[in-house]
Amino acid sequence: MYPKAKQAWLLLAALVILALPPMQRFLEQSMVMHMLVQIPALAIIGWMIGKILPENWKNNIAPWNRWGITGIALAIIIMTYWMLPRVQDAAISEWPVELTKFITVPIMGMALGISWPQLNPIAQGVLKLEFWATFMRLGWLYLDLPDRLCANYLLSDQRVFGQLLLLAGSIWAVAWTLRITFGIKIINN
Amino acid sequence: MSTTEVSSKIEYSDSENRNALIAVKSHLIAGLLVFLLMMLAGLAMRAAQGTWLEIGADLFYQIMTVHGAGVVGAAMITSTGVQWYFLRQYVRLSNGVFWTNFFIFLTGVVLILGSIFVGKYGGAWTFLFPLPAISMGAWSAGAAAAFQLGLLIIGVGFLILYLDFGRAILARYGSLARALGLTQLFGKEPVNYKHPAAVVASTMVLIVNFMGIAAGAVVLVMGLVNLFYPEFKPDALLMKNLIYFFGHVVINATIYASVIAVYELLPRYTGRPWKTNKPFYAAWFAIVFMVMGVYPHHLLMDFPMPTWALITAQVLSFGSGLPVLVVTGYGALMIVYRSGITWSTSAKLLFLSMFGWAAGVIPAILDAMVTVNRTFHNTLWVPGHFHFYLLLGLLPMLIGFAYFLAGEGDRKERPKAVDSLGFYAYLIGAFMTSMVFLASGANSIPRRWAVHLPEWIGFAQAGTIAASLVVLGMLLFITRALISLPGANNPR
After folding, report:
1. Which residues of chain A make contact with B88, given a CB cutoff of 8 A?
2. What is the distance between the alpha carbons of residues B13 and B30, in angstroms, rounded to a whole number?
3. B290 and B368 in contact (C-beta within 8 Å)?
4. What are the residue ranges of helices labelled H in A34-154?
5. CA-based angle B257:B260:B264, to the nearest 5?
6. Between residues 177 and 206 of chain B, which touch chain A (CB distance below 8 Å)?
7. How far is B216 from chain A (nearest CA, A)?
8. Which one of A71, B120, B289, B305 has the largest count of C-beta atoms within 10 Å of its C-beta?
9. Euclidean distance between CA atoms B197 and B179, whole angstroms
10. How far is CA A48 from CA A4, A61, A73, in A?
11. Which domains are seen in chain B, by residue range?
12. Positive or negative CA dihedral for B91, B96, B98, B100?
């Protein structure tokens, strides 16, 4: 395991690499790369930053984040915002929006990383099912909608994205089902 | 005497037990009251078809919508009360979550009632795409949305409850497979005859309802998108598949949740244990898949459906009821036979439910044959099946449990005259209601028609008389429940 300082530098480096113009252009040239690679990568970086935050920072946040509710609410708001197609468009054409994305999506990941373990298992289950349902609903919508949702991406790109969301949702459902059907004591009473 | 002993039952504090009892009674009373109201709605519809009551077509379809959605909702909330009462004895369940679901349910009910009686939504519980969005002015998109939102909210409440079931079952048994008894079935563990039937049944219900609600969560939102963005036209057949998967699984699961009352109470009344064994586990394992696989028998007339799906639906529908029905029906007969059982109203109702369940599936099996289905499916034959199944299979389990909870079993008393009157009025009325529906179907009388042709009116009038008897019986049961239940102690 890397020491925390080294991990912090690695995460910062990853964030900078993602922000480099060639990398940015590469990851934003298709809807699939934008939504399924760049944004999840930013969120994962945020999640990992949350893990290595200094203890006193975590202690200061804790009273404001009882049972993880505030953090999860923040994460859901940010997530919902970045699911709007016109915001994706704006991020490509306007640098202040792009900058906002590079700040808020890691914050979303961080909020999720800090809050998820504190969240009641029932609330975790509801959110997991809601995330899964969102994959399926959006996948279906992107596949069936007659119009382009993003001015910057082709209809065919939108359809591929829809198919991939449905595929990811299906894999998730099967994995989850197998885990709780055959898994061994995953929750302690 | 309690004979379903299990090695270790869960201990709760007295205040938790008191609170739990109030919660279960609230579920029962609310559910049974909704059932009574829905029966009155059904009576009104039959009387209107029989020309004994004047109801406009728009109001008829609103009543039909509330009747369909209301009965499913009442079945869900009441059967969940039964299931939760017994399951909490074997796994540690949360009273808070149980109450949360109850209040979320009531919120959903308010939305649904508002959508129907204020917003005039009359597109049936099935909310089949694209009907909710093309009412031709009968109702607004907002009313249809409120209806679907109400269903969605109720689904979320149940999802929370099932997550608590899942958490508690996994905490005690480690995996759903073990809770279902699969480790015993496949020889990984020795057979434990005291493995609680309530846990096996609840695990099955948890799995299928979780899947059903997940499908509902997707299809309801897609319907909402279509209401407000009509350019989005989802595949109608896919929508129908998901709606019927959701609806069929959810209503079908209510009987599997309620049958726990038979497993738990008949042993008390007969003094003989209900032992779980390999055939029992095998039956419940099979039914997990069958309950999820049979719904396409509602789509046998949709010619674009893949042939393999229709054949599977037909085959599974033939076998669907059988595994659990056989082990439960046979088990019930065996523990009652020469047991010297006292035929209390509760015992009679639970035993009647075995008949209703067994006989109620026969019209469904007939209707699941493609050739029969082409002629019968859009007739009153299908309401004949589900009224038989629900009135004589499901409801006797629920009312029998209410009698048990009211303390009838403890007092070992013989049924009072009013109970016997209620029982026989209900039995005869329910049987007649179902048979009149089946006879109407056999005579090609269509279902979901507000106005009937003169040739059909006789059937509707006979149905009205039968429905009146059902209402009389239910009224007597409900009065008894309202008088006895609130003050009754937890049965020993």
Report:
1. none
2. 26
3. no
4. 39-51, 55-61, 69-82, 85-93, 95-115, 121-144
5. 165
6. 177
7. 10
8. A71
9. 10
10. 11, 16, 19
11. 14-484 (1.20.210.10)
12. negative
Q: Does B175 touch chain A (CB under 8 A)?
A: yes
**CB-CB contact of A58 with A47 (8 Å):** no
The pLDDT tens digits of the residues spanning B156-192 come to: 999 999 999 999 999 999 889 999 999 999 999 999 9
CA torsion A134-A140-A143-A147 (nearest 10°) is: -80
3-state secondary structure of B230: coil
B236 Cβ under 8 Å from any chain A Cβ: no
Distance between CA atoms of residues B89 and B172, nearest Å? 12
User: Smallest Cα–Cα separation from B387: which of B39, B21, B114?
Assistant: B39
Question: Does A126 sit within 8 Å of B163, measured CB to CB?
Answer: yes
The burial of B166, by beta-carbon neighbours within 10 Å (0-12 exposed, 13-18 middle, 19 or more buried), is given as buried
Burial category of B1 from C-beta neighbours within 10 Å (exposed 0-12, middle 13-18, buried 19 and up): exposed
C-alpha–C-alpha distance, residues B223 and B486, integer Å = 41
CB-based contact A132 B222, cutoff 8 Å: no
Q: CB distance B233–A144 less than 8 Å?
A: yes
Q: Which amino acid belongs to residue B202?
A: S
> Count of H helices and E strands in chain A?
10, 0
CB-CB neighbours of B226 under 10 Å: 20
- Six-digit token pair at A2? 């890397």
Kindly give the confidence (pLDDT) of every residue in chain B, 492 residues in length, as a single tens digit, with 9 standing for 90 and above: 333 344 578 899 999 999 999 999 999 999 999 999 999 999 999 999 999 999 999 999 999 999 999 999 999 999 999 999 999 999 999 999 999 999 999 999 999 999 999 999 999 999 999 999 999 999 999 999 999 999 999 999 999 999 999 999 999 998 899 999 999 999 999 999 999 999 999 999 999 999 999 999 999 999 999 999 988 899 999 999 999 999 999 999 999 999 999 999 999 989 898 889 999 999 999 989 888 888 888 898 888 999 888 888 888 888 877 787 788 888 888 888 888 888 888 999 999 999 999 888 889 888 888 888 889 999 999 999 999 999 999 999 999 999 999 877 655 666 778 888 999 999 999 999 999 999 999 999 999 999 999 999 999 999 999 999 999 999 999 998 888 888 888 886
Chain A closest-CA separation from residue B131 CA (Å)? 19
Angle at B397 between CA B426 and CA B385, to 5 degrees: 65
pTM listed for this prediction: 0.89
Give the SS3 label for residue B51.
Answer: coil
According to DSSP, residue B446 is labeled B
| Number of helical (H) and strand (E) elements in chain B, helices listed first | 19, 0
Nearest by CB to B175, from A136, A144, A183: name it.
A183
Q: State in Å, rounded, how far the first CA of chain B is from the last one.
A: 9
Looking at the DSSP assignment, which residues form a beta bridge with residue B379?
A: B446
